[in-house]
Automatic annotation (TrEMBL):
Identification of the protein by name: 12326_t:CDS:1
Amino acid sequence: MDAIKDKPERTLRLVFLLADTPIPEVVERYGDYGKLFSRLLQKAIESGPNKNLTLKIQSFEVQKMEFPDRNELLETDGIIISGSSASAYDDIPWINRLTDFTKFLIENHPNVKIIGVCFGHQIIAKAMGGKVIKNPIGWEVAVTEILLNEDGRKFFNTDKKFLDHVCLVPPDFTNLGSTEISSIQGMVKGNHVFTIQGHPEFVGGVVKELVKHRQKKGIFDPEFSQMCLKAADQDDDSLLIGQKFIEFLLVNIGFFESKCVS
């Protein structure tokens, strides 16, 4: 305990680019995307080796065309692009602005780490020359096993082959794993950009609220909904992903050369 107390405190300055607001039932019980990510990251800090790390978070609602300015970027260590009910390939002004802004960030701010989750994963792929399409196979909901390739196992520092739609990886990015439904479940570009298709910030209760909402809307049929509700109670690797987010934001060298390589 004394060793932990003696470690100097460090502040991790993050920007959340919030691309949507969850349904009211989720917001009321669990909070918006900003609170969901904050809770995941705080839990990861408390369970990892960087307990003296403090988060300083600034959020921007990109659907309202809110983006950080140059001075704010100079004071930022990392940016997280959230999920959204929107489609990354849609020709909508705020999506086009976010895509252009993401490309600008990656090409001009190498010291700012960038993490994309689900929609954010797809925006990054689109911005950097990958391809995003509607998945013809269908939905992927609740706890789903991801087959990690060799690069994925190195990145996550694990011997596990499984954890827990982008269809073309952009140049200079490495695919980390796949599922039967989606062949690109995560990507990494050096130690600068890290993306994941799933939602590690979603606890089981959030998934259940979303499934029930979609069943009421007729998006999911009862049989599929019951399967998803059951899967929502399974153990997942959200904490591992949260810890990897923190490690990624703190490490200053490429993952193939870093201490996270097994």
